[in-house]
Amino acid sequence: MSHRRIPSYRLHKPSGQAVVTLNGKDYYLGPWMSKASRFEYDRLISEWIANGRQMPSATSIGEMTVSEFLVAYWNFAKGYYTNNGQPTKELSCLREALRPLKRLYGHSLVHDFGPLALKSIQRALIDSDLCRTHINHQVNRIRRVFKWGVENELVPSDVLHGLRAVMALKKGRTEARESEPVQPVPDEHVDAVLPHVSRQVATMIELQRITGMRSGELVVIRPVDIDRTGDVWIYAPADHKTAYRGHEREIYFGLLSPSISHFPLVL
Q1: Tell me, what's the pLDDT at 3?
Q2: HEC letters along 62-74
Q3: Using CA atoms, how far apart are residues 258 and 253, in angstroms rounded to an integer?
Q4: Is 84 left (phi over 0), alpha (psi -120 to 50) or beta?
Q5: Domains of the chain by range and CATH?
Q6: Which of the residue ranges 19-33, 98-112, 218-232, 240-254 would you say has the lowest mean pLDDT?
Q7: Is 44 within 8 Å of 27 (Cβ atoms)?
Q8: 36: burial class by Cβ within 10 Å (0-12, 13-18, 19+)?
Q9: To the nearest whole percent, how much of the chain has pLDDT over 70?
């Protein structure tokens, strides 16, 4: 059975009941083709999908191991962190964040994972020479995973409450190194490249330099996405980094320099 296939509503001939099989277990729904059995089928499928394609159990909250819990979360994450059918960069960041959690606490029970355990992971990330801000991001990702577990009744709520008590690493108050600030590429470096690329690529480089748009927004630019009715052109990318939050993105093209006056030819 493929990962995306929904288990079917079937007839159990010996009993005359409707049945669905979820994670290898049969769930009897009531008389075949009855309205009540259809409602029960929809309810079970909804819970199964919401729980990462696993059936929740009220008696097992927090009783699974961390590794088992991460399997359920990963099934959810693979479907959630996608854009146009492709995995986003956040999925890779999550994979990296969960490695020390699984390595150090994979065999522990979920309800035993507390603030000291999270601090030990924080310590391990410091020892691996990651920078302070990246460590804080990774610890926050781990907290987010357990928040999902509380939402889906896989993690006791007091576990998340305890994890929220772990403070972020503060600048000047931790052994974690600071990252070097990201600086813009010097103009002389950009200018040195321009003579060695095609006119179209040179135009794209110049356009990115004066607008500050992301590379991903530049390479997918289409004439239909640009409002050219005014003196200032407005580019509204069909897709962008924060589109999933409902944000709109507009990039403004003002007076173009003579070196890229041929920009419409690129379109």
Answers
A1: 53
A2: CCCEHHHHHHHHH
A3: 14
A4: left
A5: 10-50 (no CATH), 60-163 (1.10.150), 187-266 (no CATH)
A6: 240-254
A7: yes
A8: exposed
A9: 88
If one counts every other C-beta atom within 10 angstroms of the C-beta of residue 155, the result is 24
What string of DSSP letters covers 174-205?
SSSBPPPPP-PPPHHHHHHHGGGS-HHHHHHH
CB 133 within 8 A of CB 179: yes
Whether residue 265 is predicted with pLDDT greater than 50 in this model: the reply is no
| pLDDT value, residue 241 | 66
Average pLDDT over residues 127-148: 96
Over residues 117-127, the mean pLDDT reads 95
Q: Which of 20-34, 39-53, 157-171, 229-243 has the lowest mean pLDDT?
A: 229-243
Q: Is the pTM of this model over 0.90?
A: no
- Is pLDDT of 116 > 60? yes
Alpha helices in the chain (DSSP H): 35-50, 66-80, 89-105, 115-127, 132-151, 157-163, 187-193, 199-211, 215-219, 263-266
CA atoms within 13 A on the CB side of 94: 20
Confidence at residue 242, expressed as pLDDT on a 0 to 100 scale? 65
**Helices 66-80, 89-105: inter-axial angle, 10-degree rounding:** 180
**Residue 8: phi, psi to the nearest 5?**
-85, 155
β 86-87/226-227 pair status: unpaired
Q: Which residues share a beta bridge with 236?
A: none
CB 18 within 8 A of CB 28: yes
The whole-angstrom separation of Cα 128 and Cα 166 is 19
Give bridge partners of residue 124 from the DSSP assignment. none
User: What strand order describes the sheet that includes 25-31?
Assistant: 10-12, 17-22, 25-31
